């Protein structure tokens, strides 16, 4: 693991600090941007060429990250100071081997292994972190799925053991939905599909993400700093809009910090964790954890000071640099600059070389902007960008972000102009 640091080198020289991104999507791109600002050398890896982070990295490699030999060959050639997984489709055994060989896997290989598998994660939350979650059970056959859904009660949620962004998940309203839920989990899992988790449906007020970051403080001790919780909502299991701060009670906010601290202490390592939770009144339930920046956390590009978005916080932690914070009621908090919100820009058509129009209208909205990710291919539902807005209140920021997102239209080589389905 990286030690506390008081100096940085220069990219492309023998003094450089190197980070290796395993996955080069929009989150990896923002990490790379922060790294470039600090003179850190960036190597980007993904399954396809010209992925977003590759477009600004110093070097890039294309290959199957589930292939251990491919990963070993890249790491051996580059010898990075930190290996940063950004997606789920990675050979986890290879990460353990690389860690044994002395490489720093962010936050650590075990945390990555746990978080990428829903059964391992849920058991860790309940049995080790001892935090509240929804009721749950597992099924390995269609008949078992009928029995488990009956036991948990309707409505409920079924999810593939390994998946993300809502893929392989289904909202089961009654027994008639179970065959479809089974099919979704089997076809759209990312990785193992041999087991399905069934989760109780909680009628929450809001779903939030706590962007807890474990890092060295000014004294060289590992501490956890908590930005304000991020509220968000999903459509078909995928993030659609987010805002900061989440509109929850002070008591619920303290419970969010308590739960996130227990979880991240168990997972360990250095870096930022996206801890997803449900909030109803003063009650909070842990749901899932990403051991890396979270898509809902893109709101921090506006709500936090320059250099301290979730990506800047993650990079500082990974490099062993301190992060400012203030102790309040036993928790170390990171100050927010302004209320802000995001709204996704998704494709509703398929094709290559996406082009965007409507920008004159979109970019004329005060206190708002867009991030276009640079993905070379579009297909229905794929996230191609995000609108970001800030204002004196969360509600006004939400309106601005939605207005900007709706103004953007997409064109590809194989389609005509079509307004985004946002």
Automatic annotation (TrEMBL):
GO terms for cellular component: cytosol. HAMAP family: PurT. Mg(2+) binds at residues 276, 288. Belongs to the PurK/PurT family. Residues 123-319 form the ATP-grasp domain. ATP binds at residues 118, 159, 199-202, 207. Its EC number is 6.3.1.21. The keyword Cytoplasm does not apply. Keywords: ATP-binding, Ligase, Magnesium, Metal-binding, Nucleotide-binding, Purine biosynthesis, Transferase. The keyword ATP-binding applies. Pathway: Purine metabolism; IMP biosynthesis via de novo pathway; N(2)-formyl-N(1)-(5-phospho-D-ribosyl)glycinamide from N(1)-(5-phospho-D-ribosyl)glycinamide (formate route): step 1/1. GO terms for molecular function: ATP binding; magnesium ion binding; phosphoribosylglycinamide formyltransferase 2 activity; phosphoribosylglycinamide formyltransferase activity. N(1)-(5-phospho-beta-D-ribosyl)glycinamide binds at residues 26-27, 86, 295, 375, 382-383. Involved in the de novo purine biosynthesis. Catalyzes the transfer of formate to 5-phospho-ribosyl-glycinamide (GAR), producing 5-phospho-ribosyl-N-formylglycinamide (FGAR). Formate is provided by PurU via hydrolysis of 10-formyl-tetrahydrofolate. This is Formate-dependent phosphoribosylglycinamide formyltransferase. It catalyses: N(1)-(5-phospho-beta-D-ribosyl)glycinamide + formate + ATP = N(2)-formyl-N(1)-(5-phospho-beta-D-ribosyl)glycinamide + ADP + phosphate + H(+). Homodimer.
